[in-house]
Predict the 3D structure of the following.
Amino acid sequence: MSRRIGMGFDWQGSMDRETSLKRAQIADEVGIDSLWVAEAWGQDAFTTLVQLAERTSNVQVATGIVNIYSRTPAALAQHFATIDELSEGRVIVGLGNSGPQVIEHFHGVPFQPAFKRMRETVEIMKILFSGERLNYDGDLFKLQRGFTLRFDTYRKQLPIYLATLNPKSVKMTAEISDGWLPIMIPMDRLKEEIDQVNDWVRDAGKDPADFTIRAPGGVTVANSPEDQARARAGQAGTLAFYCARMGEFYYRQLSRQGYEDEANAARLAWKDGGGGAAAQSIPGEMLEQFGFVGTTEECVERLEQEADAGALLHSVNVMEPDPNEFAKILEALKG
């Protein structure tokens, strides 16, 4: 059975948008599961989703992730339902809280209460997708005029995946959503974490086979030593940034996973020497636990380990500019 492969749509680095869209078309032809578009404080995700939907035929298009503060639940439902119609039912809704640094200091919106807002947002979106009248009496949202979306949604239920961290939020994810997008879980603890979430899924009366858990970290195929070094440097820089500059949530996650000392070292290194020093403080063993860089064959082995731990969807990045070789690598990863 082939693996479900998700690929991030990344055009903000060395590639231009047109090149990235052509790579997305190749991925579509190969038959990977999904293309994921992130959103932080750069380009918005939904414009790119429209382009991906127009350039592809079968692959699912997903947000990985958009936050639940900068748009109302109704606006999120409008965005996703519209693109689901344009793509003829290929959208995955990927949502997260982000963090106070972004929400309060970029969007200017109070961050708390995050847990309650996530639950109410998902509930409101489900009502609007279904075509039912929006009469909702929550703690945060009180919506009593019975609005409906002014078009027939392509699907009455869109798959909703949540990016959550702490156990209370992850348990809610198992209860109210269709998938989990975890982050910063070391490979040697992945099975334990997934087993717990699958127990919560069963407690909610659902089948874990119908609940998608995407492996955190993912794999990066780099078949030359130079590409491998560049990929690991980027991975270390990202991990250091999350340790030192993205508030307490990711720091607490690393601490829960047994990496408090390493996170503290990265914070201190950033304070004393900036991002480069913080990246250099990340141990190689830690990098390999939270993501993987290797040859095609080595990455296939890592994907097998993720599947053995219970992951149903796998994140991949391929550092290969040649279109034919890029397609061959994706075929090998898909299996």
In short: Residues 244 and 267 are 5 Å apart (CA to CA).
